[in-house]
What does this fold into?
Amino acid sequence: MTTDSSLPAPNVLLVDDSAANLELLVGVLQNRGFRIRPVASGERALQAARSEPPDLVLLDVNMPDMDGYEVCRRLKADATLQAVPVIFISAMDAVIDKVKAFSAGGVDYIAKPFLLAEVESRVRTHLELARLRQELARDNTRLEELVAHRTRELAKAHARLAILDQAKSDFLSLVSHEVRTPLSGVCRVAELLLLTHDQDPATASYSALYQTSRRTLLTLIDDALLLTQVGVGAAAGALSACGLGEMLHCARAAASALAASRRVQLAPVPANLGVVQGVPYYLVRALQSLLETAIKFARAGTTVRLVQADSPGAIGLRFEADGRTIPPDILPRFFHLLDQSQPMTGVDDLGLAPALAERVVSLYGGAVTVENLAPPGIRLAMRLQSAEPKVVAEPESEPPPLAGRERSAREPSTAGNPGARPSHHVAPGGLPTERAGRAEAPGRSLI
It folds into this structure.
């Protein structure tokens, strides 16, 4: 260590009951730029250290009344002095003596007779190490303060975002309700006009167009509202073990009407799909969105295939459709919310279904991908983390009748609501139940 003349001289407390040793070390070390404070006993050493903490202590072992080991132990027991390095100087050179010195808290041990150059070198080395330890401690303290400050700032920012997120959800829920109210009247008037008109081919065409537009509008409202819920609130909800097969049966039943209208078949649900963690309602909606997206790309007369593709620790499922492909420039952004309006030749408006499915699956630690196939078609792949099964019944073919079942998903819709798609309703944390029309969240009703 090179002594910087601009800094105070290092303060060294020298403890030895031998006047000759004190005189020798004081003369040498003072000439090397150290400020030496010599004392001849352990008690006086403790008093001197407490009155003015030194930068380093040179401590003899054999002294009357109190030996060097006890002096060192008392220094280390004092919170203000425990960081001060202690170097022992002793004529005892046995291994046991050195072990006792280090056990008492010493950082080094110099045996007598000693070389003055060695003493100076060891003193400088341990003063430098002590200085570096102090700088490290100061840096750690500053870092901890900075981390605590940033943590407080992040907590405040998170609280503000949570308030804004809730305000956004409340606003969109209000908008959804206010849109549904007048839309309900418009739809009822349109249905009355269609029912009172002569049932000729033109009227049937108008009726089909009306039902398609009505379902599309309601689906868009439902998906937009659900996307606002797939955020802080949904992530904080209580998760449960969900049988993927049962949920896929519900989603398949909800998408069957769309498939039938396009003359597309849906493959049976694979058996023993396993169990995942999540909220059933959100996962069923994600599966339904993926199925309906695949149906829209499928060619009439083909079958949307449901293929199990598990990997270690994860459950995988593929939705494969033969028919149309995604333009290469849209493929990388297929699940982006703002890219759903891009036109695709031969494919109806996808709405928010791809973005909704990706958001929900990502919320529960999974992923959704898409790729084009050859011959033309697409493959949507979903992966979710596997959960330990509790007691979940996986149906092998069709799902068992559910409580509150009104009609089979394969039966036609009611006369008052022609073309409505039957679907299963899964309340968060509850069992699926079926109702006519698109699956809806608790507290929301279809027009």
